[in-house]
Amino acid sequence: KKVITVGSYTTKTSWTDILGNSWSTTGETSGNVSTFSSSGPTRDLRNKPEILAPGCVIGSTITKNTVTSPFYTLPDGEHMIMQGTSMSAPHVTGIVALMLQRNNNLDYDTVKNALISTGSRGGNWEKKNGYGKVNALAAFEYIPGTPLPTNLAVTEVHSYPNPARGNYVTFVYKVNSDCNANINFYNLTGE
């Protein structure tokens, strides 16, 4: 039962496909809980979902073996439109990974408390919204650790081509000031 359940909210309602056609969702409103996102509580009355993250009209990678309709394929040919809480959960997973990078001794309760305490509903749960929209920076700063540098901001991050296609990838980082930085890359096995 130690699971953080993530609901979806809508941040985007339209896209342009690989053929240049414009499309939009029906019934979704930017900023609101996505219509497909389930409400709580659970059957045993636990407050779920805990947190909301973007999950509607999300550009996701296409692996080299994926067959997709041009309707869903984005203009770069390497990403497609997807939606669901399975698109929301990776947003929160990335935030938790950053929290664990700041303090690798965190336990489930500390992570959950950081997410729900810093959600947009100020720690108040509601059956459709959970504790509100996730706030990545606030959740990160909630965790004790080394303070963030105040003079450094990453202004652009690009990776190309799509790494899911099995190609070599080039990463480009631009920052707003001169600084020394270490960037480490790991694969899924930590190598």
Topology:
Blueprint: E1 6-10, E2 14-16, E3 22-24, E4 51-56, E5 58-61, E6 79-82, H1 85-102, H2 108-117, H3 136-142, E7 154-160, E8 170-175
Helix pairs in contact: 1-3, 2-3
Describe the protein.
This protein has 191 residues and is α+β, with helices and mostly antiparallel strands. 18% of the residues lie in helices and 20% in strands. It is built from three helices and eight strands; from the N terminus they run E-E-E-E-E-E-H-H-H-E-E. The strands form four sheets. It has a two-stranded parallel sheet with strand order 1-4. It has a two-stranded antiparallel sheet with strand order 2-3. Strand 2 and strand 3 (22-24) form a beta hairpin. Helix 1 runs parallel beside helix 3. The longest helix has 18 residues, at 85-102. It is globular and about 50 Å long. The mean pLDDT is 86.
Percent helix range = 10-25%
| Strand line-up across the major sheet | 1-4
Amino-to-carboxy terminus distance: 31 Å
* Rg on CA atoms, Å: 18 Å
Proportion of residues in β-strands: 15-25%
- Overall structural class, as computed from helix and strand content, comes to alpha+beta
In short:
This protein is α+β, with helices and mostly antiparallel strands and 191 residues long.
Relevant terms:
alpha+beta, 8 strands, 18% helix, 3 helices, two-stranded antiparallel ribbon, two-stranded parallel sheet, 191 residues
